[in-house]
Amino acid sequence: MKLREVKEILDADVIVGQEKLDMEVKTAFGADMMSDVLAFAKAGSLLLTGLTNTQVIRIANVLDIAAIILVRGKKPQTEALALAKELQIPILITKYILFETAGRLYVKGIVGCLEQVEDHSAHN
Amino acid sequence: MVAWNKLKITVHTTKTENYLYTNSFDIEGGNFSKAGTIATGIKSILKELGLPNDVVRKSAIVCYEAEINVVSYARKGFINLTVTPKTVQIEITDEGPGIPDIELAMEQGYSTANQQIREMGFGAGMGLYNINCYSDKFDISSEVNKGTFLKIIINTPQCI
Amino acid sequence: MDIETIAKKLNLEVRSASDRLKNNVTGGYTGDLLSDVMANSHEGDIWITRQVHQNIVAVATLKEHAGIILVNSCEPARDTLEKAIQEKIPIMVSNLPAFELTGAIYNLLGKKD
Question: CB of C55 within 8 A of CB of B113?
């Protein structure tokens, strides 16, 4: 689906990346632990998180994440916002909690970026 | 859990090889607002060198985790990056508390992180584990109260 | 819906308090930051997390969660398990990542906010 539909499903505000709403997204990863994101999230996925610091933006950059969805209506820290603009990483803010956010996207057909965690080395 | 005997330990033998790029980057211990800047910088350097995307990604992840470790635990450190036609070599040296039990520290889920680090989304005990997983060769040595040294090699599959 | 139904449908492995699987699940909360879970989750939630240290039992007890599901095949730490048995908090393990597990439970609960 297009990022625009993600925005609608989540009733989200786009605070960075208004011009990227036609981007296609298929997969998502949800976590508050950044090392898990580094271990498992795939390039081109949506990143659903409650963290708002600059590290989230840097990790999204390192992993080529398609867009960051901040849950619970959380706003990125000032520095994080500036960095996201600089690196052109879309940020959407939804008022829903992570449970609701993941649930809504899942029932609309977004899938996880990996099916299950067993052999870590296979996810390199 | 990663078994100690599964670690990809190697001896550095590429010193005489031609390199495409080499540089050193300082890491400031305790400065979380700057943490990750070196990894993102290294990522753009590797991209500009025209390395394959997965090599760039793996290298950036390894640098990122190592950088976070230095910021979280050490007083200071530096990353040496050397790119050869066949490999990306990343060496991280820090002055810090060292790791008393490396085998334990390599385990997925083992962490000595404090609450502050955890609330920032780190300290899940995945750092060294991730570095090992994303490396083609990984060597670690540490001395308590002195510091830790990591050497990582990521192979570039095709000639560039 | 009770925990037992969810555990069966999603192949969860129960690690503690298997006598409390009739606990009713009224909602879900997914999150790894303890302060966030403390502040925002509700009584009767099934808590989905990757944190394995013993503080999760304290949070689940205080917030009266129906149970905890650990994702990414994470196993509870030993003291976590001891605490969970003592406090009668069901801890289950799933090999799914948080996104898929949350999606599947959301589907089962057929829940809107």
Answer: no
Say what the pLDDT of residue B17 is. 61
Judging contacts by C-beta atoms under 8 Å, the chain B residues touching residue A34 are 120-122, 124
The letter for the amino acid at B116 is Q
- Examine residue B97 and state whether it is found in any structural domain, yes or no: yes
In chain C, what residues touch A105 (CB-CB under 8 Å)?
103
- Cβ–Cβ of C96/A112 closer than 8 Å? yes
Cα nearest neighbour of A33 on chain C: C32
pLDDT tens readout for residues C28-79: 999 998 888 988 999 999 999 999 988 899 999 989 999 999 999 999 989 9
The DSSP 8-state label assigned to residue C24 in this structure reads B
CB contact under 8 A, A36 and C72: yes
What is the pTM assigned to this prediction?
A: 0.84
* Contact residues on chain B for C50, CB-CB shorter than 8 A: 124
Does residue A30 fall inside a structural domain? Answer: yes
CATH of the domain at C79: 3.40.1390.20
Average model confidence (pLDDT) for chain A?
91
Q: Could you please report the per-residue DSSP string of B111-158?
A: ----HHHHHTT--SS-HHHHHHHH-SEEEEEEETTTEEEEEEEEE-SS
How far apart (Å, rounded) are the C-alpha atoms in residues A59 and A52? 12
Residue A122 lies in a domain: no
Q: Are the beta carbons of A3 and A105 closer than 8 angstroms? A: no
Q: What is the ipTM of this complex?
A: 0.94
pLDDT in tens, B34-73: 888 999 999 999 999 999 988 999 999 999 999 999 999 9
Interchain contact C99–A (C-beta under 8 A): yes
CA dihedral B22, B143, B153, B36 (to 10 degrees): -70
